[in-house]
Amino acid sequence: MRKSSMRQLYVDELKDLYHAETQLVKALPKMAKASSNAELRQAFEEHLRQTSEQVSRLEQIFEMLEETPTGKKCLGMEGLVKEGSETMQEKYSDAVMDAAIIAAAQRVEHYEIAGYGTVRAFAEILGEDEHVALIEHTLTEEKQADERLTELAQEINSQAEAGERDDAESESKKTTTIKASGRRAA
Ligand code: FE
Ligand code: ZN
Ligand code: FE
Fold first, then answer.
1. Structural domains in the chain (count)
2. The whole model's pTM is what?
């Protein structure tokens, strides 16, 4: 059967977001656990709480629509989550790993911001004002989460870079010591 209505598209997009959010409820604790920076870990824990609320906001919308949230797989989020778990398996040092996790997490936030922006526009055109308010709330949280990650990245990226510089310096010191002792022996 051909789906011709905007309403049907709206419901499909909401289902996609619902599946995206439920994947994040599972992924965010792993990202928190893999983070060394305490503030970053807290940011993920806080966003996990928000994500659970976002899931229930979507459930409220489905109830108002008399639809069920099931039946659609968000392959986009599945891919982003997979990339994130690949990243977490790399052998990066702590600060570099934190920078890498932020990179993965910001892709997720941007993907969600795009999805919620779309359903907000659909809800507006369909005259679903109550939905618009719920979607706005979530959209604001996603944007704030993204901004918080940008803030944390500023500190973490420079720590990661400084850490690498320290490693390089201690490596070259080691080399100098070996050379020096070599000379002494000769
Ligand atoms: Fe979300
Ligand atoms: Zn999707
Ligand atoms: Fe989010």
1. 1
2. 0.88
d(CA 109, CA 86): 18
Strands (E), the chain: none
- Could you list which residues have their CB under 5 Å from ion ligand 3? 112, 142
Range of the domain at 108: 6-156
CA 134 distance to own-chain centroid: 20
CATH number at residue 62: 1.20.1260.10
Q: State pLDDT tens for residues 131-176.
A: 999 999 999 999 999 999 999 999 999 999 998 777 777 767 666 6
- Using the mean position of ligand 2's atoms as its centre, give its distance from the Cα of residue 39 in Å: 29
In a domain, 167, yes or no: no
Q: Radius of gyration over alpha carbons of the chain, in Å?
A: 23
- The Cα 116–Cα 138 span in angstroms is 8
- CB-based contact 84:27 (threshold 8 Å): yes
